Amino acid sequence: MEIERINENTIKFYISYMDIEDRGFDREDIWYNREKSEQLFWQVMDEVNYNEEDFQIDGPLWIQVQALEKGLEIVVTKAQISKDGQNLQLPTESGKTIDMPVDDKIESLLEEKFGPMNKADEIEQQYGQDFVVVVSFKDLEDIIQLSHVFEPVEGMGEELYYYDDKYMLITRFDEDYLSDDEQEDLISQILEFGQESPLTMFVVQEYGKEIFEEDALAQVKEHFSL
Q: Of which family is this protein a member (predicted)?
């Protein structure tokens, strides 16, 4: 792993895919398993702290990841929260500090400073307000039966894929429309016909064969009769 100190607030390091595998991870872990990617990040940050003793984490961080041909380039910038808790203070390369409201979107600033977001960032932004459940079905017949008894509601969206010899239903629940109890009730209805999958939606979308991109249950009901 190569470490480059940009300034007192920013550090950049490069880690090859071979280094990642030596640490017990693989590419799929990094891009599609949030828990695994966080484990790798903090493991690497421990090494950064060991080599750069004066770069101590004492507040929020801005993190930008760029996928290269043979590894990852990661830029980490230390930020601070203002005393009144209303602004994020992000240091610039010139040494000045930019104050931004905590609830403001900062994608444009980060893109200007570090470059465009990667695909995983874009997906996370797109689904940031949704609770997502992936359910697998062994047979198409199970989904057909579900589609004829289930009534989708506002604030709910479904996608259907075929992956690893199973039909995979990705269901998104908008938490602005549906309460936790309502989401649990809808999920329990779906699980009467399928089984919750440990796979993330990112894996299914990336490697699965798309059948219906939206309104999946309504389309199954329309195309298949009991």
A: Belongs to the MecA family.
**How far is it, in rounded angstroms, from Cα 201 to Cα 170?**
6
The residue extents of the domains of the chain are 2-116, 127-223
Cβ-based neighbours of 225, under 8 Å, separated by 6 or more: none
Q: Exposed, middle or buried by CB within 10 Å (0-12, 13-18, 19+), for 69?
A: exposed
The secondary structure of residue 139, as a DSSP letter, is: S
Asked if the model's pLDDT at residue 216 lies above 80, the reply is yes
What end-to-end distance do the CA atoms of the chain give, in Å?
Answer: 58
- CATH code: domain 127-223 is 3.30.70.1950
pLDDT digits (tens, 9 = 90+) for 79-134: 665 555 445 555 555 555 555 544 443 344 334 433 444 433 433 333 345 688 89
Closest CA to 137 of 170, 168, 172, 171: 168
Structure tokens at 211: 């059948």
- The pair phi, psi for residue 188, each rounded to 5°, is -60, -35
Question: CA–CA separation, 41 vs 33, rounded Å?
Answer: 12
Token representation of residue 187 = 């999920």
Distance CA 87, CA 81 (A): 6
Grouping H, G, I as helix, E, B as strand and the rest as coil, residue 137 is: strand
Judged by average pLDDT, the poorest of 63-67, 82-86, 180-184 is: 82-86
Contacts of 27 (CB under 8 A, 6+ apart): 17, 20
Helix locations, 53-139, DSSP H: 107-114, 119-126
